[in-house]
Design a protein that fits this description.
single chain; 110 residues; mainly beta; SH3 type barrels; six-stranded antiparallel beta sheet; three-stranded antiparallel beta sheet; 0% helix; elongated; binds zinc ion
Length: 110
């Protein structure tokens, strides 16, 4: 499978499902499955059992669940629009480019 063109800390917009049009920051990428964990997107309620040893309170917790890469679009940091991702070579490095404005999309280091 091709490597994902979305990276951690990118902003993405959901294009299908009940969270459609929501935007969020990418928390994790799972290259093997092509899935992403996006902040505040696809939040599921999880029933948690109390575990005093781990200081976990029982009850209902909310947690993000992963979404498929094909259900989101990358939001370009330059033009702020959801876009498809292109690639070009800059010297020896492959960089991502926005198909809308042509700008380079740098990977955000956290
Ligand atoms: Zn752009």
């Amino acid at each position: 499978m091709a490597s994902l063109d979305i990276q951690r800390n990118d902003t993405v917009q959901v294009i299908s499902g009940s969270d459609r049009d929501k935007k969020g920051r990418v928390l994790r990428v799972y290259p093997d499955t092509g899935r992403l964990l996006v902040e505040h997107v696809h939040v599921v309620k999880k029933h948690v059992k109390e575990n005093p040893q781990k200081r976990v309170k029982g009850g209902i917790a909310e947690q993000e669940a992963s979404v498929n890469r094909s259900n989101v679009m990358l939001v370009c940091p330059n033009c702020n629009q959801p876009t498809r991702v292109g690639h070009k070579l800059e010297g020896d490095a492959k960089v991502r480019i926005c198909r809308k404005c042509g700008g380079t999309i740098a990977a955000k280091k956290k």
